[in-house]
Specification:
Blueprint (H helix, E strand, L loop, with lengths): L5 E5 L13 E2 L5 E3 L7 H9 L4 E5 L6 H34 L6 H12 L5 H8 L8 H19 L4 H13 L9 H4 L7 H8 L1 H10 L6 H8 L21 H16 L10 H9 L8 H11 L7 E4 L4 E6 L9 E4 L2 E4 L8 E4 L1
Antiparallel strand pairs: 1-4, 2-3, 5-6, 5-9, 6-7, 7-8
The chain binds fe (ii) ion (2 copies).
């Protein structure tokens, strides 16, 4: 997205408003700040405190900080518009299937292409995943989010271009079977009866059949959709398969799906903070997940929460400045010029993500 060349500045030359051109790491290889982060005073001070000497920023910003800020705003706007557009098109292909038509494969490929083009804009992706969603539109945004997260995980795992394309499409279509479930059950606000729950669980199979009758869908994509609620230890559905029987696409969708579903802010449902979700995922609260996929996801995604504002149980507001690799749910928070390591502190913990 940024075409300007990089400039390596000493820490004392950094100014608020400059944008990092590369991630900044500490001596242990942990990320302190990601690329494309707009620096503020607090971040610059933090980098100083952590002993960072030089930081790569985009060149043109040196004199034209306001221009850069405008350009950053424009990029956010463009990303948001494309994201909304992708969700609208997803809604269209889902509604067509509900009305008895076949899956429009070409349209699905177009959306997947648009998702893949967003590679490299991970910060915007994470921000979008965290937005509040209307309950009726949830499935479409969830589909786009899972597709984006699958694409990111595929890149982090250094999969082939073909695999990343397939994975992005599989993420987009993973819940397509929900189009065959009655809206009264799907959007029911209260508790589901056992038989309603069983019906919802059938969306994996419905999705598989929809894809099986669509020309040009790779077999592994259809299989991944059939098994996206299976778990490594055999506790999932519909068949109770174990990790050795699941393909990599399926394992990746499962991780992306859980993360989006748990962090989504919805009416009728309190979302958990991303930190709480990291903890639950690490401790197997959603069933056992593939260890390599989970590790790759957590090690990469957690860095994007550096800079987030959080509320502590002491009612103080702080900024996440450092993720603990041993426990991603307990980062170091800067509160009123004081570093609180929530992994070590016995009294202070994060209660809200702002
Ligand atoms: Fe699902
Ligand atoms: Fe899902």
């Amino acid at each position: 997205m940024w075409v300007e060349s990089k400039l390596f500045l000493s820490i004392d030359e950094l100014k608020p408003g400059m944008i990092t051109a590369e991630a900044v790491f500490n001596s242990f290889g942990n990320v302190l700040l990601w690329d494309n982060t707009v620096l503020n005073d607090q971040m610059i001070n933090h980098l100083k405190n952590m002993g960072i000497l030089t930081v790569a920023v985009y060149k043109h910003q040196q004199h034209e900080i306001t221009d850069t800020a405008r350009m950053a705003e424009e990029n956010v706007r463009r990303f948001a518009a494309e994201y909304e557009n992708d969700a609208r098109h997803t809604k269209k292909i889902f509604e067509e299937i509900s009305s008895g038509k076949r899956l429009n494969k070409e349209e699905a490929d177009n959306i997947a292409d648009s998702v893949i083009k967003k590679a490299g804009n991970n910060r915007y992706i994470i921000d979008s995943v965290m937005q509040v969603r209307n309950v009726d539109e949830y499935t479409y945004y969830h589909s786009i989010n899972v597709s984006l997260l699958c694409m990111m995980i595929g890149k982090w795992m250094k999969l082939s271009e073909k695999d990343i394309n397939n994975l992005t499409l599989a993420g987009l279509l993973h819940d397509i079977g929900k189009t065959k479930i009655a809206p009264e059950i799907l959007n029911k606000p209260g508790k589901l009866t056992d038989s309603e729950f069983e019906e919802i669980k059938r969306h994996s199979e419905y999705g598989y059949y929809i894809l099986k009758e669509t020309a040009g869908i790779p077999a592994e994509v259809a299989t991944a959709i059939l098994t996206h609620h299976e778990k490594e230890d055999g506790s999932g559905y519909p068949m109770g398969l174990t990790g050795d029987q699941l393909n990599l696409y399926s394992k990746i969708i499962t991780v992306a799906d859980i993360f989006d579903a748990m962090t989504a802010k919805r009416i009728y449902k309190n979302n958990d903070t991303p930190f709480k979700v990291f903890e639950l995922m690490q401790h197997g609260s959603f069933g056992v997940l593939d260890p390599l996929v989970l590790k790759t996801f957590l090690e990469n995604v957690t860095g994007y929460y550096v800079g987030s504002k959080v509320r502590l149980n002491t009612e103080e507001i702080g900024e996440v400045v450092f993720m603990n690799k041993l426990d991603f749910s307990r980062p170091v928070v800067l509160v009123n010029n004081r570093y609180v390591d929530t992994m070590v502190s016995k009294t202070e913990k994060i209660v809200e993500f702002l």
